[in-house]
Amino acid sequence: MKINIYYGGRGIIDDPTLYVISQIEAVLQELNVKVQQYNLYEQRNGITALPNTLKDADGIILASTVEWYGVGGYLMQFLDACWLYGDKDRIKGIYMAPVVMSTTHGEREGMMSLAAAWEMLGGLPCDGMCGYIADTTKLENSTEYSKIIEKKTENIYRTINQKMAVFPASNQAVINKVAASKGIDLTPQESEQLSEYASDDNYVRTQKEDIQELASIFRDKMGKEDGSVGNTEEYVKRLNKKFTPVAGIRAKYKIIVQDNPKSKPIIIDVDNSKCDCHVGNDDDCDVIITSDQMVLEDVLEGRMTFQRAFMAGSIKMKGDFKLLRSMDQLFDLMAE
Fold first, then answer.
1. Which residues have CB under 8 Å from 328's CB, separation 6+?
2. Residue 45 DSSP code
3. How far is Cα 198 from Cα 200, in angstroms, rounded to an integer?
4. Where on the phi/psi map is residue 254: left (φ > 0), alpha (ψ -120 to 50), or beta?
5. In what order do the strands lie in the sheet with 266-271?
6. Which backbone phi and psi does 45 adopt, to 5 degrees?
7. Which of 17, 46, 146, 191 is the most buried if burial means most Cβ atoms within 10 Å?
8. Where are the alpha helices (H) located in 165-247, listed in sequence order?
9. Strand pairing of 34-39 and 250-257?
10. By C-alpha distance, which of 222, 281, 294, 227 is closest to 252?
11. DSSP code for 96
12. Element (H or E) spanning 323, and its range?
């Protein structure tokens, strides 16, 4: 027999649930049960893949601590993942025993909540254990509490080993009729693949980068088709056209388009009534502006000012902020 323990607490030293599940594990091992414990706080980035671990389990224990209100969020994420990606046919044959300890109040409500959730998934809930433990040392030093844990663990073992019948619950009837999982009609194998991809940070990051690259390509193509701003040469032409001299301003600006590595920086050299705007690279600049292409196009099309974009965090700058403010005076991009 194999029983998985899913611990949804924070893993703090004086958590009474940790002591209880350690005792449960010791009793089960004496009964020749293979026990595998999953600490959800350690695997929070891969919770969506954990329903796969149910496949070879005869029974599971969902363990959590009520510290102020309800069971821990990691355990609810695990149940959500079981609903979205779990093999419902396999879950129907798995017994679940809830173990909820409380340091405040609400342990019984937490245990009932876990049992109801497992019933909605189609699983088989069995008697677990719950208790109010204000001081973990009293729990550890009490032989009576140890006997309670031992007897209740033996009952869990008997229920799973003998595959005892469980009365049908209204939760299962309701879920079958009106709350069927919408969504994705996938085979268990496809669900497993999906959950693995969803929990893979590198895969998700790569997908986002690919989407940004494709969006940049299509944006460039659309810009060329409708004559709007689309590349650095066109940016330079628009800036030269919109230049408005301001007396007393002498500064050199550099604009870097960070999400388009092929584009060269734009250099703007202003000397009172003169403006030399060109594509190039010059390290001796008073202000260096770093922007995404979409944000820069919004500014050049007059939908946003340089100062407003900086205040909103859409662009970054190095140098004198007063010179950045003067950009909106030097280039009246809002006027058409």
1. 305, 306, 307
2. G
3. 6
4. beta
5. 274-279, 266-271, 250-257, 287-291, 315-319
6. -80, -10
7. 17
8. 170-177, 188-198, 201-226, 232-242
9. unpaired
10. 281
11. E
12. helix 321-330
* C-alpha to C-alpha distance for 117 and 106, rounded to whole angstroms: 16
How far CA 264 is from CA of 172, 260, 275, 287, in Å, comes to 62, 9, 19, 16
Going by the DSSP 8-state scheme, the letter that residue 52 receives in this structure is G
DSSP-derived pairing of the beta strands 274-279 and 266-271: antiparallel
CA distances from 188 to 3, 12, 48 (A): 21, 35, 14
Secondary structure of residue 269 in the 3-state scheme: strand
Q: How far apart are the first and last CA of the chain?
A: 77
Q: Which two tokens stand for residue 130?
A: 């719950």
- Tell me the pLDDT tens digit for each residue of 174-217: 555 544 445 555 555 566 566 666 666 677 777 777 787 777 66
The token pair that represents 42 in the structure block: 């350690």
Q: How far apart are CA 7 and CA 196, in angstroms?
A: 21
CA distances from 53 to 47, 78, 91 (A): 11, 11, 11
Find the radius of gyration of the CA atoms of the chain. 31
CA torsion sign for 65, 70, 73, 76 is positive
Q: Tell me the mean pLDDT in the region 125-140.
A: 91
| Closest CA relative to residue 46, chosen from 85, 90, 89, 1 | 85
**CB–CB of 17/63 below 8 Å?**
yes
Return the amino acid letter for 111: M
Q: Which two tokens stand for residue 129?
A: 């254990």
Q: At what angle do helices 170-177 and 107-120 cross, to 10 degrees?
A: 50
At residue 130, the 3 state secondary structure works out as strand
31 in Cβ contact with 66 (< 8 Å): no
For the chain, helix, strand, coil in percent to 5 are 50, 20, 30
Q: How many CB atoms lie under 10 A from the CB of residue 320?
A: 12
Per-residue pLDDT tens over the stretch 309-335: 888 888 888 888 788 888 888 887 765
**Residue 5 contacts residue 39 (beta carbons within 8 Å):** no
One-letter identity of residue 255: I
